[in-house]
Amino acid sequence: MKKSELQNLRRYAGDLSGLYGMLDFTFNEGNAKGMRAIQLSNGKGLSAVLLPDRCLDIPFCNYKGVNLGLVLNQGLCAPGLFSDDDGRGFNRQFYGGLLTTCGLFNAGPPCEDDGRMHAMHGRIHNIPGENINKEEITDGDDIVLQVSAEMREASLFGEHVVLMRQIKMETESNRLIITDTVENRGFEPVPLCILYHFNFGYPLLDSGAKLHFSTTDVEPRNETAAAGLSKYNLIEEPEMGRPEECFIHTGGTGMQFGMLHNEKLGMAVAVHYNIDELPLFCQWKNMMSGDYALGLEPSAAGFYGLKNAREKGLVRFLESGKSQSYEVCIEVIDDSDRISGLATQCE
Hints:
This protein is mostly beta strands. Helix content is 8%, strand content 44%.
């Protein structure tokens, strides 16, 4: 969508909200009742819902009517209903979605580190945003839909950290660009354990789909994953009781990506990230019936949990008054030449 085209389009549709734009609404029933949501539609078939009440994460995303993200049986749950449940409340409130943000101080299983308990995947995904803003901006003549918010993770005698998030949906291409800045407003160093839990589900995730990674190395997390290492890049049918498999992808510099390609649909989704900022790219392959899922997860310190990651020397610390920025991009592709070109880079 180009700004110079809008006046001509109004000859055909006086209100252009039917063609592209942002819809601000509230959920009215179930565990999601009362949560605010903002739906972005780019006019080319890409649509995504953002949750200002939960870290501006993305529960739903589709392209030309095809669901892309993971939709789990728990459904959406408002942040006020969260219960830690000895550090494992995450599993009861994890809706999957296209994006659930993990951290900021723990990514992975619950753990005790330096005398403090950390819940599974941290707290940031349950923190409502402040200073929420939505607007149309232009990049040259191209219209871009932009939403921003700030999430504050703080406690008495503890940390004071703010995540400033900006999400852009382009209208001249099918890309979602997420730009985050983590600022330490406290007076002690804090660990950086942010993890972008991008999740994909049926029908994009289906038997016969393949994964491509631009990184050079892959390592299984445990014996279960090691047994499936030869097929880490292949998606199979769901199976009753099949255990999850997790892999870590590393190697390379600068911009890297992981891509899920469903040849039957003629569609792929690529997760682009800067490996110098997010050095561990986590792959969650879960072929279990009912919880059929794939996670492609750029991360600052992996999915080991803070204690384990600190012992492995994976954790970077953010000093008082300093900030760290990250940018990740979701690219939805139905151009066969573009898909082939990205796949070729991974050979």
